[in-house]
Amino acid sequence: MECRRIICGNVNCYLLCRSGRGILLDAAGRGFEEKIRRECEKAGVKMELIFLTHGHIDHVYNAAALAAGWGAPIAMSGKDAGLIANQFSQPMLTQGLKGRALGFASRRLMERIKIPYFTPDILLSEGDSLREFGLDAHVLQLPGHTAGSIGLDVAGRLLFVGDAMMNLFRPEAPCLFADKSEAEKSVEKIRVLGRRTLYFGHGKPL
Q: Model's pTM, two decimal places?
């Protein structure tokens, strides 16, 4: 399997390729649709799934357009489906100066821009497999940043955590969350999995 990081401003999307089949993890914010499309075209694969780690605008904005163009289903946790229509349907709490700054910027973005609406085709839960899409991977529930935050554990080697952890200056729990206690539990869940390469929604892989 090949993993390609697609940097979209301060947000990462990831293209997972295997045997001519492709899966996109997250769909970035407004203004990055064409970049994502170009990078996926370069890979020369058939795009079969858009996997969303959570429902915030900077990770889902382009999902509807990309799905329509590729004829690919969108998969995410049902617990975050309500965020597509209303980004404020879940609490958005912050911690520390960095958290307050991110929270302010995020709220401004969510107030000004409306996500092109979509209904997820596949609702994912803990342990769900992506084998039907050609990938030896299963879903991890990692709530806290949002109620429906999820990750993807690929072959016990690669772990895509979305915003359940961030690597802005160092790897740590998110400073913006719906539930701080759940966010801390998710970080511990990631830690006890053992050695993995971590792929973050924000920051370099580690």
A: 0.98
